[in-house]
Protein backbone atom coordinates (compact mmCIF):
# COMPACT_ATOMS: atom_id res chain seq x y z
CA UNK A 1 0.00 0.00 0.00
CA UNK A 2 1.37 3.40 -0.97
CA UNK A 3 2.22 5.81 1.79
CA UNK A 4 0.22 8.97 2.18
CA UNK A 5 2.05 12.17 1.33
CA UNK A 6 2.15 13.21 5.00
CA UNK A 7 3.92 9.95 5.93
CA UNK A 8 6.42 10.39 3.09
CA UNK A 9 7.11 13.95 4.24
CA UNK A 10 7.59 12.83 7.85
CA UNK A 11 9.96 10.07 6.73
CA UNK A 12 11.92 12.54 4.62
CA UNK A 13 12.23 15.01 7.49
CA UNK A 14 13.42 12.22 9.81
CA UNK A 15 15.96 11.15 7.18
CA UNK A 16 17.24 14.73 6.84
CA UNK A 17 17.72 14.95 10.62
CA UNK A 18 19.80 11.74 10.66
CA UNK A 19 21.73 12.84 7.57
CA UNK A 20 22.53 16.22 9.14
CA UNK A 21 24.08 14.38 12.09
CA UNK A 22 26.21 12.34 9.68
CA UNK A 23 27.30 15.54 7.91
CA UNK A 24 28.24 17.03 11.29
CA UNK A 25 30.33 13.93 11.97
CA UNK A 26 32.01 14.42 8.58
CA UNK A 27 32.74 18.06 9.40
CA UNK A 28 34.26 17.08 12.75
CA UNK A 29 36.24 14.23 11.21
CA UNK A 30 37.77 16.39 8.49
CA UNK A 31 38.59 18.98 11.14
CA UNK A 32 40.53 16.39 13.13
CA UNK A 33 42.52 15.38 10.06
CA UNK A 34 43.25 19.03 9.25
CA UNK A 35 44.53 19.59 12.81
CA UNK A 36 46.72 16.48 12.68
CA UNK A 37 48.43 16.89 9.30
CA UNK A 38 50.81 19.43 7.91
CA UNK A 39 50.55 18.00 4.38
CA UNK A 40 49.06 20.72 2.16
CA UNK A 41 47.37 18.27 -0.23
CA UNK A 42 45.67 16.30 2.53
CA UNK A 43 44.64 19.55 4.23
CA UNK A 44 43.18 20.93 1.00
CA UNK A 45 41.19 17.77 0.29
CA UNK A 46 39.82 17.72 3.84
CA UNK A 47 38.88 21.42 3.57
CA UNK A 48 37.02 20.73 0.31
CA UNK A 49 35.10 17.84 1.88
CA UNK A 50 34.41 19.89 5.01
CA UNK A 51 32.93 22.79 3.03
CA UNK A 52 30.85 20.43 0.91
CA UNK A 53 29.53 18.78 4.08
CA UNK A 54 28.64 22.20 5.47
CA UNK A 55 26.65 22.96 2.31
CA UNK A 56 25.01 19.52 2.37
CA UNK A 57 23.90 20.23 5.95
CA UNK A 58 22.42 23.54 4.85
CA UNK A 59 20.52 21.91 1.96
CA UNK A 60 19.24 19.10 4.21
CA UNK A 61 18.05 21.68 6.71
CA UNK A 62 16.28 23.59 3.94
CA UNK A 63 14.57 20.41 2.72
CA UNK A 64 13.35 19.57 6.23
CA UNK A 65 12.16 23.12 6.90
CA UNK A 66 10.34 23.20 3.57
CA UNK A 67 8.30 20.21 4.73
CA UNK A 68 7.65 21.33 8.31
CA UNK A 69 7.36 25.10 8.05
CA UNK A 70 6.06 27.56 5.55
CA UNK A 71 5.57 25.99 2.15
CA UNK A 72 8.07 27.03 -0.49
CA UNK A 73 7.64 27.22 -4.20
CA UNK A 74 9.57 28.11 -7.27
CA UNK A 75 7.64 29.14 -10.32
CA UNK A 76 8.85 29.60 -13.88
CA UNK A 77 8.06 33.33 -13.49
CA UNK A 78 10.29 33.62 -10.42
CA UNK A 79 13.17 32.01 -12.25
CA UNK A 80 12.32 34.02 -15.36
CA UNK A 81 12.71 37.32 -13.53
CA UNK A 82 16.46 36.69 -13.16
CA UNK A 83 16.93 34.38 -16.11
CA UNK A 84 19.05 36.78 -18.17
CA UNK A 85 21.55 36.99 -15.32
CA UNK A 86 21.50 33.22 -14.93
CA UNK A 87 22.17 32.83 -18.65
CA UNK A 88 25.23 35.05 -18.24
CA UNK A 89 26.36 32.85 -15.39
CA UNK A 90 25.88 29.75 -17.56
CA UNK A 91 28.36 31.28 -20.01
CA UNK A 92 30.83 31.79 -17.17
CA UNK A 93 30.40 28.18 -16.05
CA UNK A 94 31.02 26.94 -19.61
CA UNK A 95 34.25 28.93 -19.71
CA UNK A 96 35.37 27.48 -16.38
CA UNK A 97 34.71 23.97 -17.71
CA UNK A 98 36.73 24.71 -20.85
CA UNK A 99 39.62 26.06 -18.79
CA UNK A 100 39.49 23.11 -16.42
CA UNK A 101 39.50 20.64 -19.30
CA UNK A 102 42.37 22.43 -21.07
CA UNK A 103 44.37 22.49 -17.86
CA UNK A 104 43.66 18.84 -17.14
CA UNK A 105 44.66 17.81 -20.66
CA UNK A 106 47.90 19.77 -20.34
CA UNK A 107 48.69 18.30 -16.92
CA UNK A 108 48.29 14.74 -18.20
CA UNK A 109 51.04 15.28 -20.75
CA UNK A 110 53.58 14.97 -17.96
CA UNK A 111 53.83 12.07 -15.52
CA UNK A 112 55.19 14.40 -12.86
CA UNK A 113 51.87 16.22 -12.45
CA UNK A 114 49.84 13.57 -10.65
CA UNK A 115 48.68 15.84 -7.83
CA UNK A 116 47.82 18.67 -10.20
CA UNK A 117 45.84 16.31 -12.44
CA UNK A 118 44.03 14.95 -9.39
CA UNK A 119 42.98 18.45 -8.32
CA UNK A 120 42.10 19.53 -11.85
CA UNK A 121 39.84 16.49 -12.19
CA UNK A 122 38.10 17.58 -9.00
CA UNK A 123 37.65 21.11 -10.34
CA UNK A 124 36.30 19.87 -13.66
CA UNK A 125 33.78 17.58 -11.94
CA UNK A 126 32.67 20.43 -9.68
CA UNK A 127 32.19 22.74 -12.66
CA UNK A 128 30.14 20.03 -14.38
CA UNK A 129 28.02 19.81 -11.23
CA UNK A 130 27.37 23.56 -11.40
CA UNK A 131 26.31 23.22 -15.04
CA UNK A 132 23.89 20.44 -14.12
CA UNK A 133 22.37 22.51 -11.31
CA UNK A 134 21.81 25.36 -13.74
CA UNK A 135 20.43 23.05 -16.41
CA UNK A 136 17.88 21.70 -13.93
CA UNK A 137 17.01 25.24 -12.91
CA UNK A 138 16.47 26.03 -16.57
CA UNK A 139 14.03 23.10 -16.74
CA UNK A 140 12.07 24.71 -13.92
CA UNK A 141 12.13 28.03 -15.79
CA UNK A 142 10.64 26.24 -18.78
CA UNK A 143 8.02 24.62 -16.56
CA UNK A 144 9.30 21.19 -17.44
CA UNK A 145 10.97 19.86 -14.33
CA UNK A 146 10.30 16.12 -14.31
CA UNK A 147 9.55 15.81 -10.58
CA UNK A 148 6.22 16.50 -8.87
Structural commentary:
- The chain is mainly alpha-helical.
- It folds into two domains: 1-72; 74-148.
- 80% of the residues lie in helices and 0% in strands.
- The chain is built from five helices and no strands.
- It has helices spanning 5-36, 40-68, 76-80, 83-107, 114-141.
- Helix 1 (5-36) packs antiparallel against helix 2 (40-68).
- It is flat, with a radius of gyration of 20 Å.
- The two termini are 20 Å apart.
User: How far do the termini sit from each other?
Assistant: 20 Å
Amount of helix: over 70%
User: Counting H and I runs of at least 4 residues, what is the number of helices?
Assistant: 5
The helix-and-strand class reads mainly alpha
- General shape: flat
| Major sheet description | none
Low-confidence stretches: none
Order of helices and strands: HHHHH
Count of individual beta strands: 0
Strand content: under 5%
Query: What is Rg?
Result: 20 Å
Mean pLDDT: 92
Number of domains: 2
Helices and strands in order, then pairings?
Blueprint: H1 5-36, H2 40-68, H3 76-80, H4 83-107, H5 114-141
Amino acid sequence: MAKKIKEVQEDLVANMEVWKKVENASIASTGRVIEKTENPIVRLVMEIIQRDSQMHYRVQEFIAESLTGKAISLTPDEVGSVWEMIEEHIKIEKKTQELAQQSLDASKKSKGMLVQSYLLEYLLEDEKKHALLLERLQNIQRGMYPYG
